[in-house]
Amino acid sequence: MITGAVYVGASAAFAATDTQTAATSQLTVEDGEKLFQANCATCHGLDLQGTANGPSLYGVGELATEFQLSTGRMPLQMQGPQAPQKAPQFTEDQILAISSFVQESAPGPTFPADHILDGGGDVANGAELFRVNCAMCHNVAAAGGALTEGKYAPALTETSALHMYAAMVTGPQNMPVFGDMNLSDEDKRDIISALLFQQQSVQIGGFSLGSLGPVSEGLFVWIFGIGALVAITVWITAKSN
To answer: Looking at the keywords, is Repeat present (predicted)?
Structure first.
């Protein structure tokens, strides 16, 4: 019993130490402010007021900040038609710290409730909402597509649920903002659920050909089918001569 009591006491002490270490290792809003000043203020201003090189962040909030930093679109590598996705420059803790600083200084859209991102919505309704509101740019298979002037809608085949929600709420770059008057949170949940379902779906047999439907299938038949017929015709003609 004495040994057991000592073991329990020691375990509790170690657990308390681990918890305290984890808590103190998390970055604070002040850390986020320092990171912002060192990496973002040149373009967005020390007070987030914006400069000639970058827009104001007033009203941007933590959701858009997390999206832009986690997808590597910010800090911007170079000027262009739109900011490309790349490996993030900051760690997850640093991104959350900067996002918290922006939210505290310039409040805006914040993170959603967990159930919005759980993939448990109405997949059929989400697929229909996606077709009506999103497919004209992102393609009905969420494979992305070209826009004007060198811009493009990215593929959503590997996009996280949080970033799907963030894009709908904050409207990054060329994407429109889908407010509650356009799509309610439950509608957004359904769209996210449909996209997650599509990401997890297994292709049964053959090549998916990008899941682009009759366009890619017709092109495949034209190039390889007609090409094979032409090759056979040439071969038969050569043999007959």
So the answer is: yes
Please tell me whether 10 is known to bind a ligand. no
DSSP letter at 102 equals H
Average pLDDT over residues 141-154: 90
Least confident of 99-103, 112-116, 148-152: 148-152
CA dihedral 116, 159, 125, 211 (to 10 degrees): -170
Q: CA 169 to CA 147: how far, in whole Å? A: 21
- Min mean pLDDT across 9-23, 28-42, 77-91, 108-122 is at 9-23
Confirm whether residue 91 is marked as ligand binding.
Answer: no
Q: How far apart are CA 126 and CA 176, in angstroms?
A: 18
- 169 backbone φψ class: left, alpha, beta (φ>0; ψ -120 to 50): alpha
On whether 43 is known to bind a ligand per the annotation, the reply is yes
Known binding residue 172? Answer is no
Q: How far is residue 191's CA from residue 199's CA, in Å, rounded to a whole number?
A: 12
Q: How far apart, in whole angstroms, are the C-alpha atoms of residue 82 and residue 153?
A: 10
Can you name the residues that pair with 91 across neighbouring β-strands? none
Answer yes or no: is 193 a known binding residue: no
Q: pLDDT tier at 212 (50, 70, 90 boundaries)?
A: low
Tell me, what amino acid is at 117?
A: L
Q: Which residues contact 71 (CB under 8 A, 6 or more apart)?
A: 85, 86, 88, 163
CA of residue 75 relative to chain centroid, distance: 16
**Cis peptide bond N-terminal to 75, omega within 30:** yes
Beta-carbon neighbour count of residue 140 at 10 Å? 15
